[in-house]
Amino acid sequence: MRGIRFQIVSRPGKDILYGVDALVRDGIADPKRLTIGGYSYGGYITNWLITQTTRFNAALSGAAAPEHVADWGLTDIPLASVYSFGGFPWQVPSLYQQEAAIFQVDKVRTPTHIVVPADDITVPPTENYIFERALIALNIPTKLIVLPDESHSIGNNPWHEKIKIREELKWLHKNSNISVSPSNSTMNSAISNKATQIYTFIFVMFALSSFFKK
Question: In the structure, what pLDDT confidence band is assigned to residue 211 with cuts at 50, 70 and 90?
Fold first, then answer.
C-alpha cells in the first residue's frame, strides 16, 4: 500500500477512472449504464469518486468514511490513518482534508445507497450518518440502512447480508439503466460468493496496481 500513501483515495480513484475509460473505449462497458459500489475501503473510494465524476448512474456505499479525522478518532485501528497520512490530524491537517469526500460533497450528483453495521468499531456508523446528512442537504437521492447488532464483517445474522444485497439490487434497478431482479436465487448466489466483500477486493486490487506499476 506504500504506492498510495498520502493519497489513499485520490490516486487509486484515478486508476479506477482510467480503467473505466479503457472499458468504455474498448466497447466492454456501456457509458450510459455505469454504476459504482464498494464496502469498507471500497466504500471510501466510492464516496470519493462520486465527488470527482457524474458518470455513474448510481452508487452503493457501505461501512465507509467521508472524512478522516473522526475516522482516526473513533476507529479501532487509528494507526492505519497515522501511517496512511504520515502523521496525526494536527500534524498534517491538509492531507486529512484533501483526501476527504465530505469537503467536495457539493459536487455529488449520483443517487447513493448506504449500508451501516450498527456496532461497527472499525468504521463507526457516525461516519456514514455524516455522508447521508450531507447528501440529503444537497437533495441527492439517498437511502441509509442500519443493520442492528452487526460488526464490520456483517457476520452475525445471515439475513442481514440478504437484506443488503436485496436493497442494493433494488437501488440499481431504480436509479440506473441496469435491469436487475432482486430474486432469491440472485441474492443467495451473491451471498454464497461473499458479495459483500467483493467490492472491497476489487478496489484494493486497483489500489495495489498503482503500487506494482512503480
Answer: very low
Grid look-up 496496481 returns 209
Mean pLDDT of the chain: 86
3-state secondary structure 140-186: CCEEEEEECCCCCCCCCCHHHHHHHHHHHHHHHHHHCCCCCCCCHHH
Say yes or no to pLDDT of 214 above 80: no
| Beta-ladder partners of 117 | 147
- Roughly how many angstroms between the first and final C-alpha of the chain, as a whole number? 12
Residue 54, classed as helix, strand or coil, is: coil
d(CA 207, CA 143): 27
> CB count, 10 Å around CB of 156?
14
| Ordered domains of the chain (ranges, CATH) | 2-152+197-212 (3.40.50.1820)
Q: Residue 61: name the closest of 88, 49, 43 by CA.
A: 43
All cell numbers assigned to 81: 490513518
Report CA Rg, the chain. Answer: 17
Cell 458479495 maps to which residue? 195
Residue 131 has pLDDT above 80, yes or no: yes
pTM for the model stands at 0.83
3-state SS assignment for residue 209:
helix
SS3 content of the chain, % helix, strand, coil (to 5): 55, 10, 40
Cβ contacts of 198 within 8 Å, gap of 6 or more = none
